Write a sequence for this structure.
């Protein structure tokens, strides 16, 4: 029992360091300065498209839509693009259409 508990604690500690590493690395990158977003309708939901101006060499970005439908919340991502627009769509069901409640821009 003690071995299982020790293995569980070590797993939690290791996962904490693995999850924390990308967040600290992301602070050093410089995201695009000006991005414009527009929402649009899709069947049983909504979508968002993000376009960043001007294109920055060496950076690619994607749209991240935060979706909601009733009591369900989830995240949908678009394709990585070096220029142009990236779109993410929130699609729900017939009786519970989804909506975009927020968005982010991921930079790589």
């Amino acid at each position: 029992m003690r071995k299982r508990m020790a293995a569980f604690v070590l797993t939690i500690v290791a996962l904490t360091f693995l999850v924390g590493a990308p967040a600290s690395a992301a602070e050093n990158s410089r995201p695009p300065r000006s991005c414009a977003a527009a929402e649009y309708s899709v069947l049983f939901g909504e979508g968002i498209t993000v376009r960043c101006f001007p294109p920055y060499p060496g950076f690619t970005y994607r749209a991240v839509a935060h979706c909601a439908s009733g009591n369900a919340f989830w995240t949908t991502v678009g394709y990585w693009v070096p220029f142009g627009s990236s779109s993410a769509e929130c699609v729900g069901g017939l009786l519970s259409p989804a909506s975009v409640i927020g968005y982010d821009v991921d930079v790589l």
About this structure: The first helix runs from residue 2 to 26.
